[in-house]
Design brief:
six-stranded mixed beta sheet, five-stranded mixed beta sheet, D-Maltodextrin-Binding Protein, domain 2, globular, single chain, alpha/beta, 13 helices, 11 strands
Length: 358
């Protein structure tokens, strides 16, 4: 895997020239093409929402802000995106806090097992948390990055070669895991394996792993159903420490009008993303149940979900202990998170999703 330094040396000089040119342009008339680095291919609800975001930015700013996407880590490796955006190697990019837990400890609470179940509630909760908690903004500010919008993986479920309906089905098996779910699976008696998401298909196909935490729409998008035929819907929270980041200096150089447009379009994108994500999950489940190219997926539910929750119960106390060592009142921050989450859960229960309201 290329390192951040080697990548920088390889293309840094070329991009530096481009950056200088952009800087000259910005002093006379606002004209900026954002080089955006993304970790995945241009398909699925998130990339579709991002493409809409880019189109709206161009339209509403009169082409003063445009976006050029570099998909599938073609510009920057996913684990190096935050550093690259902060350094200006990319102007913007998709940042996963799970790759830098030590640098983004507060945002890592967003990746708590069984933290938030609904996609829209999760996106709105963590966007508001960022606006309400300066210590959360400061995490990325120190890296010269501003998070414009929150992303999510959607509900964390299980993809496996054999059916999984109880904790007994997990014991002794090998699972690809990440974040707080690693400790949870270990507590359930499984062995955990580190495998990049891009290598997951091969790992399942070769038997390197027996199963993995996964997401229904991703099982279809990445064709994982070809090598594992069982999905257990358990909704173990979401990876919500996941967002659209921009170089902070670049953001601050924009005119006030264009910053307002950028902020507004980014918020609108989250609602659009949540709507399309829910639709994509429903379609993916229907398609895989019916069968794709002869490959069918059987969907299961969990019979002893409280045991799974108990296996993950150490995450929040451990998180509180870690952030307290950095001078943050973890209990107060967590209480604020619960308050904001409850607000959006109440809004959803009473009014439905924004796109369903009259």
């Amino acid at each position: 895997m290329q390192t951040f330094k080697s990548t920088f040396k390889k293309i840094g000089s070329t991009l530096a020239v481009g950056s200088l040119a952009l800087g000259v342009m910005a002093t006379t008339a606002e004209a900026l093409e954002l080089r955006y680095s993304d970790l995945g291919p241009p398909r699925g609800p998130r990339p579709e929402a991002m493409i809409w975001w880019a189109d709206e930015l161009a339209k509403r700013t009169g082409n003063e802000i445009t976006v050029k996407f570099y998909w599938s880590q073609s510009l920057i490796k996913a684990k190096e995106t935050m550093k690259a955006v902060g350094a200006g190697l990319a102007d913007a990019g998709t940042i996963l806090g799970i790759y830098t837990p030590a640098e983004l400890p507060l945002w890592n609470l967003a990746n708590a097992p069984f933290g938030v179940s609904d996609v829209w509630v999760g996106l709105r909760t963590w966007h508001e948390m960022r606006e309400a908690a300066p210590e959360l903004r400061n995490e990325t500010k120190k890296k010269n990055v501003r998070i414009l919008a929150n992303f999510t993986t959607g509900a964390v479920d299980i993809l496996s070669k054999d059916p999984i309906t109880t904790v007994e089905d997990v014991k002794g098996k090998k699972f690809r895991t990440s974040g707080g779910w690693t400790a949870m699976f270990k507590n359930l008696g499984a062995s955990t394996v580190k495998v990049g998401f891009g290598e997951l298909y091969q790992a399942l196909d070769r038997g390197t792993v027996d199963g993995t935490q996964n997401y229904i729409q991703a099982v279809k998008a990445y064709k994982h159903y070809e090598v594992a035929g069982h999905v257990t819907e358990i909704s173990m929270g979401q990876v919500l420490g996941f967002g659209l980041g921009i170089n902070l200096k670049t953001y601050n150089k924009l005119s006030e009008k264009n910053r307002e447009i950028l902020d507004k379009v980014s918020v609108e994108m989250m609602d659009r993303y949540a709507k399309s994500y829910n639709a994509a999950v429903a379609k993916a489940k229907a398609d895989m149940t019916a069968g794709i190219d002869g490959k069918k997926v059987v969907f299961h539910t969990i019979k002893d979900v409280e045991k799974w929750k108990a296996a993950a119960s150490e995450f929040v106390p451990n998180w509180m202990e870690k952030v307290s060592k950095k001078g943050v009142d973890g209990k107060a921050f967590y209480a604020k998170f619960e308050e904001v989450k409850a607000k959006y859960e109440k809004e959803l229960a009473e009014k439905g999703y924004p796109w369903t309201r009259k």
